[in-house]
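stage 2 :: seqdesign
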């Protein structure tokens, strides 16, 4: 069991840096999202913070509304939120994920 966990940790340690997204230079991101992220990155720091806060509030309301749709749709919505929301929130704040 310990060797399996060690192999898992080693495998993740080797593969994770290769999948990092640079949300400042937008390397690794393609498609129409790139132009939207470029426009957001041109905003000032206070506007970025305001957009991040409003986005968090909207996402929180959306996630609480998803709980009423049943367990399957809740987890599908959570996966979509995690995939899309993390990239956009990171780009707003200028992070490398």
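stage 2 :: out
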């Amino acid at each position: 069991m310990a060797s399996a966990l060690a192999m898992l940790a080693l495998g993740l340690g080797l593969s994770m840096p290769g999948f990092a997204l640079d949300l400042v230079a937008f390397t690794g991101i393609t498609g129409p999202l790139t132009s939207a992220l470029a426009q957001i990155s041109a905003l000032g720091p206070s506007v970025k913070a305001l957009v991040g806060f409003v986005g968090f509030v909207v996402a929180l309301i959306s996630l609480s509304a998803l709980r009423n749709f049943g367990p399957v749709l809740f987890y599908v919505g959570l996966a979509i939120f995690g995939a899309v929301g993390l990239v956009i929130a990171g780009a707003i704040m200028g992070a490398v994920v």
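stage 3 :: structure notes
- Residues 52 and 58 are 10 Å apart (CA to CA).
- The chain has a mean pLDDT of 72.
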